[in-house]
Design a protein that fits this description.
The chain is an all-alpha fold and 431 residues long. The chain has 17 helices and no strands.
């Protein structure tokens, strides 16, 4: 039987970093430059998103320290509010929160691979990668750790190599990164708020280690540290990388393009070098897919432990891996790869996950009020949760106003879990 606490701080940080650095950073700038052409405003988008992610990570750190069990929002919200609220959050994680980003990352990897090797079919590549990595993580936790610890540092090294090469080999563009008078209006515009959806999608994963808290050594200490350090590493990486994208590549070349990383690599290194960097970016995306395939089934596992109707999802193989939950997630991923649109997925996820994480961060204050006697190994203070909530609410309002269909689809996904929960509870009572 696999030991319960086998994941150290280094691996936990890697899981956070790997969850965050993925599809978004190499694809989302193309959607942002459609309406925003200011270098300062574009970089400020990533600062605002990074601040929100850091504040969210610090807030989750308190909850993870005081309730160190795998399951993320499902576990937190069940304790803080009501099991029904926790289930709805877990339902989102099980049906969309992990499966959709895995599918998006696999599709992006397929597209990048096809640019480098035109004979490859992008969809087939995406399907093979999703199945292959799922099988790797079904073997055992330690093997999954080795796989993650190998890929994630390579991805961070790739980003910093990209930045250094861009500075020395790239041709500077006619763009200013200093603030101008018109930037203030841009920052408070609907275009900025909607673009922030793509930025927050790129930062999503800052809460990754709370989903596997039961498997982390000394979780009351290592979970908060992994969230903070992992998010800080990514914030700095994103700022540098987007600076290089804008510094070396004409904005018009990136407008509405998904393969931004490949376009910039061609600009810096030429066609041959671009293909090499495209291959390395594809390798980096493997790390993202791996970390989400690892974390996602742990939410379903805890749901299965707490709700008898879903107990099959809690079953573990002889290596201690929730294999049925992993297979269930894989089925959803494969379906999304075959049917989904990248832009629609991002907006839909942006609304759904921001709403879920906002309710969780609000839970920091509610948990303190309901359980004042509980010992708190780590306490976040008041300002970070308030900053996170302010940015999230501002973003949710503008997402709904600009993209009502995707927003309502996200809300509908959450509410669809309610009859499922009531049916499961009724079956539990009858049995």
């Amino acid at each position: 039987m696999q030991k319960k606490n086998t994941i150290g701080l280094f691996t936990a940080i890697n899981i956070v970093v790997a969850n965050m650095i993925g599809t978004g950073i190499f694809t989302s700038l193309g959607f942002q430059v459609t309406d925003i052409k200011s270098g300062f405003a574009l970089l400020f988008l990533w600062v605002v998103g990074g601040i929100a992610a850091l504040c969210g990570a610090l807030s989750y750190g308190e909850l993870g320290a005081v309730m160190p069990r795998s399951g993320g929002e499902f576990h937190f919200l069940s304790r803080i509010y009501h099991p029904a609220v926790g289930f709805l959050s877990g339902w989102v994680s099980a049906t969309a929160g992990f499966a959709a980003p895995i599918a998006a990352a696999a599709v992006a990897l397929g597209n990048y691979s096809a640019k480098v090797f035109p004979a490859l079919a992008p969809t087939l590549v995406a399907l093979v990668v999703a199945v292959g990595i799922s099988l790797i993580h079904m073997q055992n936790i330690k093997f999954g750790s080795y796989f993650q610890n190998l890929l994630t540092p390579l991805k961070v090294l790739l980003i910093f190599s990209f930045v250094i090469c861009g500075l020395f080999l790239g041709k500077p563009q006619d763009i200013s990164f200093l603030p101008a008078a018109r930037d203030l209006n841009l920052i408070f515009s609907s275009s900025f708020a909607v673009s922030l959806v793509y930025v927050m999608y790129s930062y999503s994963g800052w809460n990754a280690s709370v989903y596997i808290a039961s498997e982390v050594k000394a979780p009351e200490k290592n979970v908060p540290w992994s969230l903070f350090l992992g998010t800080l590493i990514v914030l700095l990486s994103y700022l540098l990388l987007n600076f290089i994208f804008l510094y070396t590549t004409p904005i018009q070349a990136m407008v509405d393009k998904v393969e931004v990383g490949y376009i910039v690599a061609n600009q810096i290194f030429g066609t041959a070098g671009g293909k090499i960097m495209g291959s390395l970016i594809s390798l980096g995306l493997l790390s993202t897919i791996s970390s989400m395939i690892w974390a996602g089934p742990r939410v379903m596992q805890v749901m299965g432990e707490d709700i008898p109707f879903f107990q099959l999802l809690a079953a573990k193989n002889r290596h201690g891996v929730p294999h049925y939950a992993t297979l269930f997630q894989l089925v959803i991923v494969l379906a999304l790869i075959l049917t989904s649109s990248f832009a629609a997925i991002v907006t839909y996820l942006g609304f759904t996950l921001t709403l879920s994480s906002s309710v969780t961060v609000l839970g920091v204050f509610i948990h303190r009020f309901r359980y004042p006697e509980v010992s708190r190994p780590y306490r976040v203070g008041i300002l970070p949760p308030l900053i996170f909530l302010a940015i999230s609410i501002w973003m949710l309002i503008f997402i709904y106003l600009d993209k009502p269909v995707e927003s309502l689809a996200g809300l509908g996904t959450i509410l669809l879990g309610l009859p499922v929960y009531l049916f499961a509870v009724k079956r539990q009572v009858l049995s």
